[in-house]
Amino acid sequence: MKKQIIVITGGTTGIGFACAKYLLSLDYTVIITGRTKENLDTAVFKLGENCVGILSDTSSLSDIDELVLKIKSQFGKIDGLFINAGMFKASNFEETSEELFDETMNINFKGAFFTIQKFIPILKNPSSIVLNTSIVVFKSFANTSVYTASKSALESIAKVLNVELADRGIRVNIVSPGVTESPIQKKSGMSDEAINNLLDHFSSTSPIGRIVQPTDIAPIVEFLLSDKSQVLRNEKIIVDGGTTL
Ligand SMILES: NC(=O)c1ccc[n+]([C@@H]2O[C@H](COP(=O)([O-])OP(=O)(O)OC[C@H]3O[C@@H](n4cnc5c(N)ncnc54)[C@H](OP(=O)(O)O)[C@@H]3O)[C@@H](O)[C@H]2O)c1
């Protein structure tokens, strides 16, 4: 069987990186993106020769156009797309600036929206799209209003796309991680002490007794990308170790 080709946006660290590693171990061909060259080079070096890295800022529509052109010329069509690139910065509602609002929405929602739109011509029939949202969509956390809005917006389009793209053989499902140990916490501007407190809290209150790791999410994403889940549409798999029960 021909190797399945999967694109992961934001595959340089954390969840995207773990998914790339897992898919490569199962003999998929994986293309990852990221916006920081150093992180991309490091990730591609670690992931090996079956992984292709392309520098692409998901919040830039011209970058997305270029990304699609590059992938089309090198690979033709692809089997799956994991919409994973994202960022989080904590801010209480009253202090959320227009700049943070735009940055968050541009990366987490607008970028995701137009990435999906622009990839449609190079998605095979059948193919699978997986959206990485978050438990914030259904459980409230203080200081996450704009992040929550961006992830809720992303989740909301899955059902529409499943109807509009059905005749092209494209299906869309959702992975909804709980708090997962990854570089996102440090990038968010949290202090080491605040990160440790957060991770300790979610470890001690979780039914699994530990924090969720990116490697816990990878097999779930592979399932949603693979033929094993071919009859699922708009399905959401919550990967939080039971913390929201
Ligand atoms: N960790 C959690 O607790 C958690 C929980 C629920 C959902 N999520 C979601 O999971 C996804 C991955 O997060 P993570 O925890 O794995 O964090 P992470 O390690 O910071 O990974 C984020 C990835 O997205 C990339 N990225 C960010 N902005 C980008 C942009 N404008 N263009 C292209 N790539 C961009 C990053 O690349 P650079 O290094 O180049 O910036 C990196 O590869 C995010 O969508 C996040 O919202 C995370």
Task: Describe this structure as you would to a colleague.
InterPro entries: NAD(P)-bd_dom_sf (IPR036291), SDR_fam (IPR002347). By secondary structure, the protein is α/β, with parallel strands linked by helices. The chain has a single domain, classed as NAD(P)-binding Rossmann-like Domain (Rossmann fold). The protein is 44% helix and 18% strand. It has eight helices and seven strands; from the N terminus they run βαβαβαβαβαβαααβ. The chain has helices spanning 14-25, 37-47, 61-75, 98-119, 145-164, 184-187, 192-204, 214-225; strands at 5-8, 29-34, 51-55, 78-83, 123-132, 170-177, 236-239. It has a seven-stranded parallel sheet, with helices on both faces. Strand 5, helix 5 (145-164) and strand 6 (170-177) form a beta-alpha-beta unit. Helix 1 (14-25) crosses helix 8 (214-225) and helix 4 runs parallel beside helix 5 (145-164). The longest helix is centred in the middle third of the chain and has 22 residues, at 98-119. The model has no long low-confidence stretch (mean pLDDT 97). NADP nicotinamide-adenine-dinucleotide phosphate is lined by residues 9-16, 33-36, 39, 57-59, 84-88, 107, 132, 134, 177, 179-180, 182-184, 187, 214.
- Give the class-level CATH name: Alpha Beta
Ions, cofactors and other bound molecules: NADP nicotinamide-adenine-dinucleotide phosphate
| Helical content class | 40-55%
Q: Structural class, judged by helices and strands?
A: alpha/beta
- In the sheet with the most strands, the strands line up as 3-2-1-4-5-6-7
What's the order of the H and E elements? EHEHEHEHEHEHHHE
Mind telling me the CATH superfamily name? NAD(P)-binding Rossmann-like Domain
Portion of residues in beta strands equals: 15-25%
Number of domains: 1
User: Do you know the CATH topology?
Assistant: Rossmann fold
